[in-house]
Amino acid sequence: MAINDWPEGERPREKLAQRGAAALSDAELLAIFLRTGVTGKSAVDLARDLIARFGSLTAMFAASQQAFCEIHGMGPAKYVQLQAVLEMARRALKEEMHTGNALTSPRAVREYLQLLLRGKAHEVFMAIFLDAQHRVIAAEELFQGTLTQASVYPREVVKRALHHNAAAVILAHNHPSGVAEASQADRLLTDALKQALSLVEVRTLDHFIVADAACLSFAERGLI
Known about the structure:
Elements: H1 12-19, H2 26-34, H3 43-54, H4 57-62, H5 65-69, H6 76-99, H7 106-117, E1 124-130, E2 136-144, H8 154-163, E3 168-174, H9 184-198, E4 203-210, E5 215-217, H10 218-221
Parallel strand pairs: 3-4
Antiparallel strand pairs: 1-2, 1-3, 4-5
Helix pairs in contact: 2-3, 6-7, 8-9
């Protein structure tokens, strides 16, 4: 059955207009982006197939153009549009971070980090540098690969903090394994960075670990 034949209150566009975006499922939101389905499938059916094919919205956003375009009904134009939507979301959250206090408005920081780091196939370590009022000065990706105390160099983090004249930092890295839990290596690394930064009077406010479906905060867990 075509979406136009559905009851009006169940059509994704009308449902969003009446009840807000939060009321829609992942497939319904994606269907609004897709706009049309393919022969024998509505846009919602196609959206469900896409999510099932990649396993999650996060994995779909992270998919290569080749993998995305292998799906019947998808092509380079849709892939480019999808990446543009994702980048706009990142930039909107980055703007929100820059205009507010990172401690009193932590949602934007958390969501920005999740959009930036979720779905990456390799580990990435980054830092958000803040001024004395905890406003964002800059966010930088600093290291890639297997992150250990030996591969993330405290002196380089300190150098970047001094470059930005930062008063505080928020650290973050991802776990491609999908498990948002702090390992012993993560704790040792955090302690080493906190100690190095304190020598130049830069406070370490938090360290986030981002996984596919979760985001752990060291500060919330009392680990920092």
